[in-house]
Write a structure and sequence with these properties.
This protein is α+β, with helices and mostly antiparallel strands. Helices cover about 30% and strands about 35% of the residues. It has a 4-stranded antiparallel sheet with strand order 1-2-4-3, with helices on one face. Helix 1 packs antiparallel against helix 2. The longest helix is centred in the first third of the chain and has 17 residues. The chain is globular and about 35 Å long. The chain starts with a helix and ends with a strand.
């Protein structure tokens, strides 16, 4: 397998694990594009803080958190493989 395939699989695994957390409203996997050079996971959490279970899923999948941004009552976590 190539690095790209492994990165995609790790990102998808983290999305699956993150989406199991009740306060996660979405976990979207975005492929590399002209704007992004990595497989990217965007997780929307309906809370004031990102729960440890989501961060643990990202760490287990060896993803790097690039940004955690407030979006009204929610937080958007962007992680890359």
């Amino acid at each position: 397998m190539t690095c790209t395939i492994l990165a995609r699989e790790r990102t998808r695994e983290a999305a699956t694990e993150s989406s199991r957390v009740p306060i996660v409203t979405s976990a979207d996997v975005l492929p590399p594009s002209e704007d992004r050079d990595h497989w990217t996971l965007e997780v929307v959490v309906e809370a004031a803080a990102v729960p440890a279970t989501v961060l643990d899923a990202l760490a287990t999948a060896e993803l790097s958190v690039r940004d955690i941004s407030p979006q009204g009552e929610a937080r958007i976590v962007e992680a890359v493989a």
